[in-house]
Design a protein that fits this description.
35% helix, 8 helices, 12 strands, alpha/beta, three-stranded antiparallel beta sheet, 2 domains, disordered N terminus, Alpha/beta knot
Length: 234
């Protein structure tokens, strides 16, 4: 048997079977013989949870945040992405603002489960997304903006949010496929970027739930196995 115990949250030790890349009850000798490594080892319960979460990940829904400087806002965006099932997010930092250092507590470890891709320009980010079939919408209160609730968020879509002071850049807006706003009836007519992102993502989730998109995997079997292997190693 494998002489290694995992701890439960209550501090007690786990003495049951382990999983190597989804294969239960593999002992050390057979694991070594087949090329498995101890660092892949997780409990069956953990494997089942990761499988269930991964099966609902939305590879056709993503977020772009441009030059956001507050680490709490970036962390909150990543938490919302994880909660809604976004597989990956994109950060654009063109040199005017450095990517902030994220604290472990503020991101609540969500960044471990949301792949973050960094770009040094909006054009590079958009090129990457369009090559994979995404339509791109920025958030900006302008005369050409449509309501968030008029968008079809069940298609492959990227939602772009600007930084705390300037919003999305002119370039980001001009190169996008469209622009939207979140309807408001208050005096200030302004939402924090992390709040705006959460509201938008949950509208996307509402539409996608209604269409059954969380009930069917968005990955091929081969891609799901690749992602599962990656998640088991995290």
């Amino acid at each position: 048997m494998i002489p290694m115990l995992l701890g439960h949250t209550d501090g007690s030790a786990y003495a049951g079977p382990f999983v190597f890349r989804g294969i239960p009850n593999v002992d050390r000798q057979s694991a070594s013989a087949t090329g498995f490594h101890e660092e892949y080892m997780i409990t069956p319960e953990r494997a089942a949870k990761l499988d269930a979460v991964l099966a609902k990940r939305q590879s056709t829904l993503t977020v772009v945040f441009e030059n956001v400087h507050d680490p709490h806002n970036v962390s909150a965006v990543i938490r919302s992405c994880d909660a809604v099932g976004v597989l990956e997010a994109h950060g654009v930092y063109d040199g005017r603002q450095a990517f902030p250092k994220l604290g472990a507590k503020s991101s609540a470890s969500a960044r471990k489960w949301v792949d973050l891709h960094m770009h040094d320009s909006i054009s590079a980010c958009y090129e990457n997304l369009r090559a994979r079939g995404f339509r791109i919408y920025t958030t900006h209160m302008s005369s050409d903006a449509v309501s968030l609730y008029e968008l079809d968020l069940t298609q492959p879509v990227a939602l772009v949010f600007g930084n705390e002071h300037d919003g999305v850049s002119d370039e980001a807006r001009e190169l996008a496929d469209g622009n939207f706003l979140i309807p408001q009836v208050g005096v200030v007519q302004s939402l924090n970027i992390s709040v705006a992102c959460a509201v938008s993502l949950y509208e996307a989730m509402r539409q996608r739930l209604a269409k059954g998109m969380y009930s069917e995997r968005q990955f091929s079997d081969a891609e799901f196995e690749r992602l599962r292997h990656d998640w088991y190693m995290r």
